[in-house]
Amino acid sequence: MTHPLIQESVDKRQHVRDLLAQTPEDYAAVRDLWKAHSLAEDARDIAGLMATLTEDCVYELVQTGHRWEGHEGATRFYLGLLGAFPDIDFALTGIVVGPQGVCEEAVVNGTFTSPWLGMEPSGERVVWRNVIFFPWDPRARLFTGERVYSFFPDLAQGTLPAPDGVPPRT
Questions:
Q1: How crowded is residue 37: how many other Cβ atoms within 10 Å of its Cβ?
Q2: pLDDT in tens, 122-166
Q3: Is the torsion defined by CA of 121, 124, 130, 133 positive or negative?
Q4: SS (H, E, C) the chain
Q5: Which of 14, 103, 121, 165 could disulfide-pair with 96, CB 3.0 to 4.6 Å?
Q6: Cβ neighbour number for residue 120 with a 10 Å cutoff
Q7: Contact 142, 33 (CB under 8 A)
Q8: Phi, psi of 58 (to 5 degrees)
């Protein structure tokens, strides 16, 4: 039996080759769309966020296996995140923009005020680090979602718990 991570790499091999075939001419469009996405996120503009995403987008918290699919799923992701951390702030610490998409690193903080991902709110300010990949769809000229890697230095396990029945991914 093939390990799931090895199978994932095999399944995505052609997709990665297609991404590598992108040309630098897409750079400006990718950068401008990321800016629009970021501004919509800061404004808590769900419709503006959805306008930057393909219809079949996928939001994934890679380490835990949490997934939200399509605009409906992405909307649930944002409503849950922004509801749980109404004062959330993404402080960008690094970014790479290219014709394949965007990778950003940020220190994130917010007051945990509502349940999120099966965790009860603490009422405390929570600080964590995110690395997020925004893959680019050159035909749709939109992002296909976000692949989010998070590190919570104040949690003993360093990551969030997995959804019920889903083993954590590392």
A1: 21
A2: 899 999 999 999 999 989 999 999 999 998 877 655 455 555 544
A3: positive
A4: CCCHHHHHHHHHHHHHHHHHCCCHHHHHHHHHHHHHHHHHHHCCCHHHHHCCEEEEEEEEECCCCEEEEHHHHHHHHHHHHHHHCCCCEEEEEEEEEECCEEEEEEEEEEECCCCECCECCCCCEEEEEEEEEEEEECCCCEEEEEEEEEECCCCCCCCCCCCCCCCCCC
A5: 103
A6: 9
A7: yes
A8: -135, 130
Residue 62 structure tokens: 């890679």
Alpha-carbon distance 168 to 109, whole Å? 23
> What is the reported pLDDT for 86?
96
Is the pTM of the predicted complex or chain greater than 0.70? yes
Rounded average pLDDT over 9-13: 77
All structural domains of the chain, each given as residue ranges with its CATH number in brackets, are 4-151 (3.10.450.50)
Which amino acid is located at 165 in the chain?
Answer: G
